[in-house]
Amino acid sequence: MTRRLRRLLIISCAVFATGMLINSLVNRGTCSYFGYQTDRETKYAALVGCMAKVSGNWVLRSELRAVQ
Q1: For residue 67, what pLDDT is reported?
Q2: pLDDT per residue over 19-41, tens digit each?
Q3: Rounded distance, CA 62 to CA 13, Å?
Q4: Of 11, 43, 48, 55, which is least surrounded by CB within 10 A?
Q5: Are 49 and 58 in contact (CB under 8 A)?
Q6: What is the pTM for the complete model shown?
Q7: Cα distance between residue 13 and residue 17, in whole Å
Q8: Cα gap 56→62, rounded to integer Å
Q9: First to last CA, the chain
């Protein structure tokens, strides 16, 4: 592997990791803001998404209408 290709691979991995970190922070922020707006307890699960506590159970935010 050439030096130039190795450097390009490292830079692209760093950009990808930074993008994933920023995306995660934005998702956590929107989940927290949803909890603030609706006065519900919320949490963000990395592989699942935003969850809200309804009647003692954690439900996905996208499925909240089906539960209510």
Answers
A1: 62
A2: 999 999 999 999 999 999 999 99
A3: 31
A4: 55
A5: no
A6: 0.76
A7: 6
A8: 17
A9: 57
